[in-house]
């Protein structure tokens, strides 16, 4: 899964996230609960995290405690890679990725 800095899922940290395309994972304690991507016109890691934090993506991800993120020019394929890696390790997708590919 994503390595690198683990941030608390606070407004200040989310508002400081990059305005770039990429992927991110949301965590509840030490458990990964969601893997997502930011790909498209005006859609950034920051805007996606803000949407989760405000509850616009549902209650499952709103309660995350931490997140990690990675800037990439190929977020769609990277997201798929991360989801498959998680499924291989755990036999299922993260609990908030109910309709993963």
Largest sheet: 4 strands, antiparallel
Query: How many E strands?
Result: 4
The run of helices and strands is EHEEHHEH
Ranges with pLDDT <50 over ≥5 residues? none
Distance between the termini: 17 Å
| Overall pLDDT confidence | 95
Tally of DSSP helical segments: 4
What would the principal axes of the Cα set say about the shape?
A: globular
Describe the strand arrangement of the main beta sheet, using strand numbers. 1-4-2-3
Q: CATH top level?
A: Alpha Beta
CATH second-level architecture: 3-Layer(aba) Sandwich
Strand content: 15-25%
Helix proportion of residues, in percent? 25-40%
Give structural notes.
There is one protein chain. This protein is α+β, with helices and mostly antiparallel strands and 101 residues long. It has one domain (7-90): 3-Layer(aba) Sandwich (GIY-YIG endonuclease), CATH 3.40.1440. The chain has 4 helices and 4 strands, in the order βαββααβα. The protein has a 4-stranded antiparallel β-sheet with strand order 1-4-2-3. A hairpin with a 2-residue loop joins β2 (22-28) and β3.
Q: Layout of SSEs?
A:
Elements: E1 7-8, H1 11-15, E2 22-28, E3 31-38, H2 45-54, H3 59-62, E4 66-71, H4 75-90
Antiparallel strand pairs: 1-4, 2-3, 2-4
